Amino acid sequence: MPRRAATGVMPDFMGQTIGGGRYYLDKLLGSGAYGKVYRAMDLKSPADCRAFYAIKCMPIYVPGTTKAHFQSRELTNHPVVRDHPNIVRYERHFEEGDWVYVVMELVRGGDLFAAITERHVFRDNDALVKKVYLQIIDALQYCHKRGIYHRDIKPENILYSEDTRRIKLADFGLSTTHAASAEYGCGSCYYMSPECIAARKPRLKYSSKQTDVWSMGVILVNMISGRNPWRYATIDDQCFQAYLHDNDFLGNVLPISVEANKVIKRIFTLDPLRRISLEQLKEEITQVPTFFRTQQHLESPSNPLPVESPVVSTDSGWQTESEPVPTKHALVVREVEAGAASSPVLRPPETPKKPTHLDSQSTKLEDHVPRTNEKPSTGGASSVADSSKSSLAVKTPSVHAVTPVAVVRPDAGPDDDIEEPLALPGTLLEKVLRSPGGKPKSITIKNGHLLMYLDPYLSYALDAISYNQSDVVIIKDNAFNTRFESANREIKKAVEAYWAGKQTVEQLQQVAADTRKASWSAIKAQGVDLIPSGEFTLYDHVLDHSAAFNAIPDRYVGLGLSPLNVYFAMGRGRQSEGVDVPACEMKKWFDSNYHFVVPELSEKTNFKLNYNKALEEYKEAKAAGITTRPVVLGPVSYLVLAKSAKGAEAGFRPISLLPKLIPIYKELLSALKSEGVESVQIDEPILVLDSAAALEKEYTAAYAELAPVSPKIVLTTYFARLDTNVNFVAKLPIYGLHIDLDRAPAQLEDVVSAIKSTSIVLSLGVVSGRNIWKTDFAAAIKLGQKAIESLGADRVIIATSSSLLHTPVTLASENKLTAEQKDWFSFATEKAREVAVIAAVLSGSQDAEITAALEANRKSIAARREFEKNSDATVRNRVASITPEMLERKNPFSVRKEAQAKHLNLPKFPTTTIGSFPQTKEIRQARAKLGKGELTQEQYDEFIKKEIQEVVRIQEEIGLDILVHGEPERNDMVQYFGELLHGFVFTQNAWVQSYGSRYVRPPIIVSDVSRPGPMTVRWSSYAQSLTKKPMKGMLTGPVTILNWSFPRADVSREIQSKQLALALRDEVIDLEKAGIFAIQVDEPAIREGLPLRRADWDAYLKWAVDSFKLATAGVTDQLQTHSHFCYSDFDDIFPSIQRLDADVISIEASKSDMKLLDTFKHYGYSNQIGPGVYDIHSPRVPGEQEIKDRVRDMLKTLSPSLLFVNPDCGLKTRGWKETKASLTNLVEAAKWARQTYEA
Fold first, then answer.
1. Given 368, 449, 545, 1177, which residue is catalytic?
2. Is the whole-model pTM more than 0.85?
3. C-alpha dist (Å) from residue 1000 to 432, 499, 807, 878, 988
């Protein structure tokens, strides 16, 4: 049977005729990562002498995707080298339906992998080794001379004739025409060069030629010994590490002759610019008298090592007809994955004993690289062979410097764009591996990866921690804020794959690099002049700064984690391998639905610049031909957004650390200036807060120090008006100032007046970064003209108002919106074009294209206004008829509490959850199948019933007191209700980041909102029928639906909120009629909607609280109303929380160390409350004692008669395993509290 690599779901083409009836597929030859290969009979050839070909069948991938990119390379590059006798001949390719077929020469002998591991044809056969190896060199030289670099040289891609005398190089799917490449991780991990594996400093590309040479070294070791030299050419691979300490290691432990070992050492030279060239390699191989030491060294050790799978699936057995020969030699081991056929794998030599001096200090090199057990598992357990039983007994290598033998510069020239390393590895390794007296010493370096020897400026942390966020982009004539995520959420998927152990650091880095480049290119294509860099993040941009500044809380230090895993532990906690640490606190980013990770600082915090991501991403973009403006969060905002760490001195304020932080910013900014960066964007969003007025001295002192060493500073504000703060901002030594004219258009006059006498350039945020509506060009141009009249065109920049983090990526991926609806909207990519058009008009560059864009925009705005006139009179009349009596319950809480106690019969310290339970893969698949028509509504409903039955059963087994139905039918807590209400439209791919890897698709309110019928009654009443315990109905509150949707721009938020409240009021009343006597109306977003300026608070809080009360006040006393609130600072709005008059409120509290209890202690609270006892945003399971301790702390402030015990938030994003364990501990803690605090 043919060996198989990982293959996606593809049909079986066996027996089919393709190519217009020309080719009949009669035999499967192999399957690989990207398709299947069949033997094909050419029916147009003579019947008595049929011609046969190998035909590769592949799906036609979506243009622009990575798979489509590699497929295109194969179809383009292979024909260029088709005529060489040692390269599989390409005949043609054609498309039929959804498939592309590549017709190639049929090679009948097999592949080199089988020749080595199954037939052992090279054993003691010097002549054959030389003959075949020289043919591979000839094939590669031919490719290189024609500008094709293979990058996937491995035995599976080298085929041979039936007599094994002629080889054929195959599979050009990873080939490139770039002599210098920045695509890392190409090929199979065993054969990759170190520079190809490493995500080095982006501008330092690697030589594609020399990575092929490295692969040839592994091939030579394969042919001589039947083994791979190592799994990965990285410092954390012990075999490779042994080679670094003794470059005769392979010659000592494998049956390689002295002469062959000399050649191998020249190939495995770390510096690619000193590595042997193909021409030199060919000459030296010709001179080798023998490749083998003795016959006895071919005997296998008794305990073979299992090995990890290659990073990239191998395309095993393609284009061959031979069947594998049953192995009789112990050099072949078999690796078995679930559901896959076993296949022989070349394995490395036994892992040598680690040189003892590597363990002598805690600052050794291996401490800075990922641990082996942190790499994604491939399902096989590792073991170490007993070398004493093997004829290939491993010798502990002698320790000496790895001085490369090869000193002749290979065929990499100036045209290859390969930059000279800052230090050659031989010299540098000699310094770190040998003391001046020649004795070995511990490796101690600042930077983690082996390749950092070549580039001391780049730390492993920068290798690992990539950045994906967007903050404001200021452009010379145009402005745009980058959006570092695609509509398909590749970053989210890659990060979660890394967490799940399904992706390596290198693979994650490659996705990040591809996403950054694609985003920069997309912005550039819209006509934007200056593009931001440095804001890309894998989790959160504030967390990025904390990691870069070494502001890492003590609990994450000394855990033996790589910097990347420390980073993620700070964001989401970690509970594995003896590590159990909670995450840092999260808060809402000003008045948005985005969450940031709060820095934890104390007087002991010692800042240092671990890495300069702004610099590195600037260089990365520059290498791609794109000039960018680096973006950093300003020092004052960073400190004000921070919190005092647990254990900090009483009265400590993070802003007091400003003198310690400024030198770090100076180091960062001066490096940018040295690199030639013209201007830098420094975000200081807290300048729009009232509290910033008290920070004038801090701002003045900070920027007086930063300005002299920095590129020109563009100070950025957003989300609200500067107000009087502009008076001191105008005195700062800055080049430019950005203001938000979407949220605060009236501030333009005051800001222009304040800076008019200065030389400050003004950036106008006239294109909204917070909504999805098309910009009214006429209004935006008018604002621009007003600024130009006062300041002059040379001092005005057009920009988005704020970060486009808060908007979806592009309308291009939306196919279900009507043409009319689509014409109303503008997503991030479209907003970039809007900025460019407005800037062009204001600069006088109004060509035919710009004129057409202006006319199209005028028509779109007019059409939307016409649509807005079609209001729902019934809804408008209901809003106008709201009375004060509709906002109040019939009796006060004290009366209601007694009625509810009798009706619900709850114990002391009642337990409940916040609503949702895990949304499993099966639930998501069922919902998708319903949408595709693969399930009928009846089948889907039966599925949902079973899910609800299971959720109710589990809750009863655990012992919860108030149950929920688990919400399996709901996709999102806002979208679900929007789909059941009139007035909303929905998108397919309009994803927006909420926190970390969590993304949401906010619905869009386009018209008056009303409820056509009951929304949740069916499933809540069904769930209640399954249990005698109270079932809690679950609704999302009116303010949260509004804040987590894209609201209308033509109607006030107050009116929209009250329309939603009336719809929910009807639902609450219907739920009570259906027998549901506990109803939760979630308002997690009520605090985030609070205006940033205190002067605007009262008006907002009045209508926000009234909306909640309008939704919940139409019920009897015995119905218990609940509400839930997200991470927030509640001190300032606590009176409004009390005015909601909910019977029970639950609040996310665990991440903030229960500090909000101080607020309750200060104000007092007479209704029932459930501060969350554990954080659900982390997979970490809290211990029973941990929850008991939190309950005990709560009871220092709260009355036992008022306390509910519940998690922080809904459990939708968690898995069942941790959910059951956590809730079990929660219930046990509540039982303990009942016994301990008996009345």
1. 1177
2. no
3. 49, 20, 11, 31, 11
